[in-house]
User: Fold this.
Amino acid sequence: MVRSDARENRARILAAARQAFAENGDTSMNQIAQRAGVGPGTLYRNYPSREALILDIYRDEVDLLIGSVSDLLATLTPPEALRRWTTELVDAMRKKHALGAALSPDAHKSITEQTYGPVIAAITELLDAGKRDGSIRADAEPGDFLQLTGALWRAAPDRAQPMLALILDGLAVHPLR
Assistant:
């Protein structure tokens, strides 16, 4: 069992690192330790490398994103929940790739493999809700949706929402014309 002070230190390190990397992707580990109010030894005990820290930040963001599906579906229509969720996914993908220089190819592959299944499950839940209420086509596939939206993080920020609208329009159930 992890002690409460160790959990608090880890949470402070993650919060400080998330903020520091958002401001400057080249932030040093020592700067992160200072921001978190912990010593370098505490930082390196929790995160032996910069890569381990970045991977944990990304894993944490994906976990939060996946955990948000039920709340979104409780308050929004399935298409609107899918739009909001996908916008957050694209933001997380941009952050991951902005820090990509700090990750080895093996780390990129590992985090993609670790998060693929849970992300597909979240997309499935969103699409299934729309299929049940008739707002999303019955033939919509989670893997296809993820592949299409994968291009959004590479798009210019002002183009991501119009492109997402095109993807979502393609999911809508339309009467035959």
Summary: Residues 120 and 146 are 8 Å apart (CA to CA). The two ends are 61 Å apart (CA to CA). Residues 1-48 form a domain with the Arc Repressor Mutant, subunit A fold (CATH 1.10.10.60). The chain has a mean pLDDT of 89.
